[in-house]
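ARCHIVE CARD
Drawer: 12
Card no.: 0347
Subject: one protein chain, sequence and derived structure
Cross-reference: see card 0346
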Amino acid sequence: MATDITGLTMKLDLLLQAEAAKTADFATVKAPVTMAKVMEFPFGADIGSLNQIWWDRRTLAASADDELDLTGDEAGEQLLNAFGVKVYFDSVRLVIVINRSDETIGAHAASDAIISVGPGDGNDWLGPFQANTHRLNVLPGCPLILLSPADIQTVSADDDVKITNEDGAAEALYDILIAGVSE
């Protein structure tokens, strides 16, 4: 199903700065490193562009999970965009998950809850994963970025991405953004 969005631009800035130091007899020698990448994604369906986006800040009870429906086929939780319209992805090009469990935000008390990201149960968006049992853990305070300007993987009917709170006692809080193409 085609997107209802008529314009979307995105710019992703990644910057890492580090410095290693070693003290010698009379001086400290420093070795700096900077790694940077800026990527811009125009509106469209061609490689390197985007025309569909969804984001949210979500809370998970202890041991709970979210099954997020990428196709709007009601297998998991349907996603609504910022304009209240159901989101359909034909391909996903970017997934960003930030585990904010370590922060006190609103009613959420800081915790050390780990969340995992992977394919849904039975409705498998494999994305970069090799099998529906594969998962990536995201530690508190850490981001996970899955990116491919072409496609991470084409989305099929009823495909879900699953976010799970791996902590059996504490609530988890996370931000998620999914961007891609709906043709």
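Annotation on reverse: The two ends are 6 Å apart (CA to CA). The chain has one domain: 46-181.
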